[in-house]
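Structure tokens please, single chain.
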Amino acid sequence: MKTVIGILIPFLGTGIGSLMVFFMKNKFNEKLKKMLLGIASGVMIAASVWSLLIPAVNMAEEQGKISWIPAVVGFVFGVFFLLIIDKIAFFLENNKTNKNKFSKVSMLVFAVTLHNIPEGMAVGVAFAGALSNNMEITIASAFSLAIGIAIQNFPEGAIISMPLKSEGMSKLKSFIYGVLSGIVEPIFAFATILLTNMVVPLLPYLLAFAAGAMIYVVVNELIPESQEGKLAFLGTIGVTFGFLLMMVLDITLG
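Here you go.
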């Protein structure tokens, strides 16, 4: 039961973020947006280090491998996986046959949904490691990662539902689309856990893969957007707060 709850926590974060469409004006407050993007970035950076890369290194060492190799290999594959996904999204967005009234926002939903896949896998991998009684990953640390991803999913849900509303879609439909963008997370988390016996030997690589994917999203999308135009300092403050929050969660619960 704890595992089911933990897997659904990130999805809950997306849902709560999407709910903001009912309470905010058509335009997302720029100050709030920058702060939330910064917090999401800080949370993901800290989670990548404490919840994913450090356990990956320690696990590889326990398995008798050269400790840093799985971390490096997995991280690189995670970055390139998201790079390919972005290229596919860019192609679809610029393909004339795909143009429609909501093309730009549709691509945003598509991109965020795809980016949620490795995050779901990360949670699944963490709980799979905890269920296999791996000393490097406890149920508490898996919950810590799930909470961290939920925190960064909050602005994602809002950033999807709000533009949909501003493009003319109803608040209810905008909310539903925002929520659905996060449904892949529990699906891939459950799938990863069902494959626990296959996953355990590959845990160091998979944890690092998730870290690489998350860092890619931070560097390529969240931080640049939080630093655009005026009030960039709010994004920086958000990164600091998010990083420290996730670090404390990891150390306390891990």
